[in-house]
Design brief:
Elements: H1 7-19, E1 30-32, E2 48-51, H2 60-67, E3 83-88, E4 99-101, H3 110-116, E5 121-126, H4 130-136, E6 148-153, H5 169-182, E7 186-191, H6 193-196, H7 203-226, E8 230-235, E9 259-264, E10 276-277, H8 281-289, E11 313-318, H9 331-334, H10 338-346, E12 349-353, H11 369-378, H12 385-395, H13 402-414, E13 418-424, H14 434-442, E14 449-455, H15 465-479, E15 483-489, H16 490-493, H17 500-512, E16 516-518
Parallel strand pairs: 1-16, 2-3, 2-13, 3-4, 5-6, 5-7, 7-11, 8-11, 10-12, 13-14, 14-15
Antiparallel strand pairs: 1-15, 8-9, 9-12
Helix pairs in contact: 1-15, 2-17, 5-7, 7-10
Amino acid sequence: MSKFHGGDALAKAVERAYKEGQTDYSLEPMVLEDEAGQPVGRIKDGDKVVFCCRRGEREIELTEAFTDPEFKHFPREYMKDLEFVIMTMYHEKLKNLPIAFAPERVQKPLAQVISEAGLKQFHCSESEKFAHVTFFFNGGYNQPFPGETDLCIPSPKGIPFDQKPELSLPTVAEKVKEAADEGYGFIVTNFANGDVIGHTQNTEAKLKAASVISKYVDEVAHYAKDKGYLVAVTADHGNIETLYTKEGKPHGAHTTNPVPFVVLDPKGRDIKLRDGRLGDIAPTVLSVLGIDKAAEMSGSSLIETEGITNEKMMLIILDGWGFGTGDEGDAIFLADTPGWDAMLAKYPNSKLRASGEDVGLKAGKAGNSEAGHNNIGAGRIVAQDDVRMDNAINDGSFKTNPVFMHAIDGAKKDGSALHLIALLTEKSSHGCIDYPLMLAEMAEGVEHVYLHIIFDGRSTEPGSAPALLRSLDEKLDAIGRGVVVDGIGRGIALDRDGNYARIQKAYEEMVLGKGARYRK
């Protein structure tokens, strides 16, 4: 008879939550309890925890709650002897934590080269994508370079994003125009709507978002052009353009579609562009500004016409805005987008590859915002965390990773529990269920291995969590250890907008057992 591993029990709890109208992304905390009514598998001081997510901005707040002795966002007792392992360095301020795959910083990213040339620059986005025009665009550096001004506009709070598809774009647009008035040598901005709204299942909201993006990219690009800026409009990956899956269901994930690169020249020159990849954008910017590209940049300018220079340049990144099919399944085609349509018709443009091996991901894998901005700012192909980690799995070094082994050996030695915070997905850029499964396999001799599930709802099909949990149960049974003890939606546990009320729910679920109870 198979041992109890908890996946099926949580699956049944999720199915009950579905009947109440909850969805995977926003599932409220659910906690396994024993026959005495006590929560099972709580994280305690002295235990070992591995946060099995590999990206950055969405993992910071929950990590802080567990590891920052000065944490003040909600009451909690600091666990000074808790060993908390992070998969990658989510933020520079977490550099003293045990990091399984320490970052490889980009040498000489675009922002640094511009800074060293003595130009002032302005980076602006709303909070949903602010890390992308700073940390990721700047090659893993959290602090702005000399002469760099960063401005974060708060994203809407307290309502589902698809209820306000314009997000905070009107304010972002206004601040970027003000920066153009001030005459910065280089301006980069991110319009978040295509990705944030593209991840929802709301077709009407996607069409509205596409229309809003068209309006403001037209407005900002022409405003900057009139101020003497050579303006380039591009994207980091595709998303919103694809409305439906092959099965006809709402599509809410990134795509492998190419993205645009459009140039508006204030001098009206006849500019010829070539197709390329995201890593060619930084060399293009430097070429326009008359700055030699860094020796580390392997990309080359997308402008084939010689002698195209300008003293100021603006880069507008439309997050999640790819070239679609141009039919009824394409949100950009269906939406009212006169500004965007006119831009493509009037100005030189080309297509850039923004997925798979062209941005340092596995072949055939959809691009994402981190890889996109990382490659754009680096001027080269940058190997992403999933590739580095997959390589470690393939060459066997994952199983001998000293940071993992320290936690596992410590749990064996002192009899403490090993906790694996696991994203329930097979293909998200934030993580993969394979990581906690492999760690469970490595934890032979550890008496208590607990899995704390974060439901995805972005890279997974709506309503797929129960099936994924039951599949997880079978794999844990084959390994012979590991119990799923709680679950919560990604939209709560992986907040990135400073909403610590959400993080409190996740923390108290895992530590105090607060949440809807279910049993074996």
